[in-house]
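Chain A, query sequence.
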Amino acid sequence: MGNLYVVATPIGNLEDITLRALRVLGEASLIAAEDTRTTRGLLAHYGIKTRSISYNDHNKRARIPLLLDALTKGDVALVSEAGMPTISDPGLDLVVAAIEAGHQAVSIPGPSAITAALAVSGLSSRQFVYVGFLPRRGKERRSLLADLAQERRTIILFEAPHRLQKTLTDLLEVLGDRRIAVCRELTKLHEEIFRGPLSAAIDHFREPRGEFTLVIEGGSPESPEAGEEEDAEEEMRRLHAQGATAKQAVAAIVGRYGLSRRQAYRLWLESR
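Chain A, predicted structure.
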């Protein structure tokens, strides 16, 4: 019975790989790779000859039985396109299937955009919550943002360049002008780390390019007076009935009742 090795690979700089990872990749009988082109480049750089096959969201149902069969004959290494497998990629399904079939899943730790960004963000690393990518659908996105408005831990999420402006704008509207570290192209040639308020980040990334990891300051505990919040709730329902947009209503409530933007946005969602 072979082991399934879950191997972290570089998120950019090819030197960011452990000696143990290189040994495992060289000794495995097969490598399951999310992107075989990226993996072939890494293997060629280090002179590793192990055969690799694709394993991704599109073919995982067909590939899992094949990989489980390979595990009965030897060790298999699982790699994502970059970073640690199973983090925002399809590797989890293979890990679960291998465990259920009686194989050992062995972690070969290494690079991760999550910890790399957090370490240089300048924000609290004592506690944090990883969100992944925000949902694309409006209702699911609004629901998650409302939850994040109450989150006191540091928040980490990924974003694609074509959605970065919308995400930053939504975060500003819901969370207020919190501090953020926007990490672009981590460990790569054009690495950039912006640190500042959300409003400034929006101005800075007018034409974003590359891959982004966002590290956002957590909120502060707040407890408004019960009567004050009840008045704000009534006012929010009135504004909603009059056809005000979320941005207009939140701005009005914040200024009139002294609530935070996240509290006001929560009231807006409840008034819908």
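DSSP finds eleven helices and ten strands in the chain. The radius of gyration is 23 Å.
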